[in-house]
Specification:
Blueprint (H helix, E strand, L loop, with lengths): L14 H24 L1 E6 L1 H10 L6 E5 L6 H9 L2 H4 L7 E5 H4 L3 H9 L2 E4 L8 H11 L3 E4 L17 H7 L6 E8 L1 H4 L12 E7 L3 E2 L1 H9 L4 H41 L1
Parallel strand pairs: 1-7, 2-5, 2-6, 3-4, 3-5
Antiparallel strand pairs: 6-7, 6-8
Helix pairs in contact: 1-3, 8-11, 10-11
Subcellular location: Mitochondrion inner membrane; Mitochondrion outer membrane
Pfam families: Acyltransferase
Membrane topology: Peripheral membrane protein
């Protein structure tokens, strides 16, 4: 089914549009960085991997970052926690993101705001060949950064769940296989609880564990030479990302446990 609103991205963005988009992204990114730095306690393992992927990768190779999804504020706050300020004010360098059309694009002003913020509306249930996914693949083929929550929804149970194949399509059908960097996080559902009245809280603890980069060129090329179907390739690369989540989850849980214990010890020593 088509989106219930007009396509929010201009075919040829004007200077005014680009300037407004830059300001929108820059302000949201800066405020997210300030929130996570000064009123949330964040511990990050291997953040240099993310920095290198965003700032120093081959400009011809796109980047896909993948993360579990525990809160409606995961993006932009996780991006704010992991990126330096200069990234937020560089529209070309800043990430694209996929967002559910029935959650973040429900009214006209939200459609305008999130599209200026480089969020692509996805219609859940419409599969991997809907127009927004075609648009996302176009950005990948231009060498851009795409952030994906491949669970496809906020995961309230925090258990490893079957990932959607959309991320697999972006990898399998890209002209140049993207660099993939997975990461896992805990604590964001305490920053914005998934219960009414949905009010963000200060002083919470968040832990982020960044995994090793995944270079999937050889696998994708091998499967194509074997005349494997695109569906098979999508499944194979999605399975690899799922396996990485399964490895990162216990590492992040241990990091978060230490984070909470250290915070408790610090509080006890002060009282």
């Amino acid at each position: 089914m088509p989106l219930s609103f007009n396509w929010p991205f201009p075919e040829k963005p004007t200077r005014y549009y680009k300037a407004l988009s830059t300001v929108t992204i820059g302000l949201v990114g800066t405020l997210s960085r300030l929130w996570m730095k000064y009123i949330t306690s964040v511990r990050i393992e291997n953040v240099d991997i993310l920095h290198n992927a965003v700032l120093h990768r081959d400009p011809k190779r796109s980047l896909i970052t993948t993360a579990n999804h525990h809160s409606c504020l995961d993006d932009p706050l996780l991006i704010g926690a992991t990126m330096p300020y200069r990234v937020f004010w560089n529209r070309q360098r800043m990430r694209w993101s996929l967002g559910a059309d029935d959650i973040v694009f429900t009214v006209r002003r939200h459609q305008r705001f999130f599209s200026l913020g480089k969020t692509i509306p996805i219609k859940r249930g419409d599969g991997v060949y809907q127009r927004p996914m075609d648009f996302a693949l176009e950005q990948i083929n231009q060498g851009d950064w795409m952030h994906v929550f491949p669970e496809g929804k906020v995961n309230l149970t925090k258990e490893i769940m079957r990932l959607k194949w959309g991320v697999g399509r972006l990898i399998a059908e890209a002209k140049i296989c993207p660099l993939v960097v997975p990461f896992y996080h805990l604590g964001m559902d305490s920053v914005l609880p998934n219960v009414e009245p949905y009010v963000p809280k200060i002083g919470q603890k968040v832990s982020i564990y960044v995994g090793e980069p995944l270079i999937l060129d050889n696998l994708v090329e091998k499967m194509k030479k074997e005349n494997r179907s695109l569906e098979n390739i999508r499944k194979a690369v999605t399975d690899i990302i799922q396996n990485e989540f399964e490895k990162l989850k216990p590492k992040c849980e241990e990091l978060h446990r230490q984070h909470l214990e250290n915070s408790s010890s610090s509080t006890s020593s002060k009282t």
